[in-house]
């Protein structure tokens, strides 16, 4: 029980810190009348352009994406996930296609490995992301002399 309380408190603190960062960026943008063109800008812009997200959903969307951005590190799956989210934020029409397909296949349930196999468009977007932004750098080597 104590471990769960520590986890819950940590999650709340992380959410609070992320929300402070978001609010600070919003204040800067209002003062400067312009937005910096970076990943946080894209994350903040999405709820503004999507009227279907309520206030709570908008906050949850923003904080969840900030968590993804800050905690992904350099692991290949996390890198691909981040690039995929960035590309979908830039191309809202594809994001809409994916959301529609996920709703059709999953309904109210969370997607799982089995349901993803029924979402060809999701697979295509992930594969295109891998094509554009491979998670592992290719390092070419050439022998300087014969052994």
UniProtKB/TrEMBL annotation:
It comes from the Eukaryota. One of its GO terms (molecular function) is iron ion binding. It is found in: Membrane. Pfam families: p450. Its cofactor is heme. Gene3D superfamilies: Cytochrome P450. Keywords: Heme, Iron, Membrane, Metal-binding, Monooxygenase, Oxidoreductase, Transmembrane, Transmembrane helix. InterPro entries: Cyt_P450, Cyt_P450_sf, Cytochrome_P450_Monooxygen. It is a single-pass membrane protein. Its main location: membrane. GO terms for cellular component: membrane. Belongs to the cytochrome P450 family. PANTHER family: CYTOCHROME P450 714A1-LIKE ISOFORM X1, CYTOCHROME P450 FAMILY MEMBER. This is Cytochrome P450, family 714, subfamily A, polypeptide 1, putative. It comes from Theobroma cacao (Cacao).
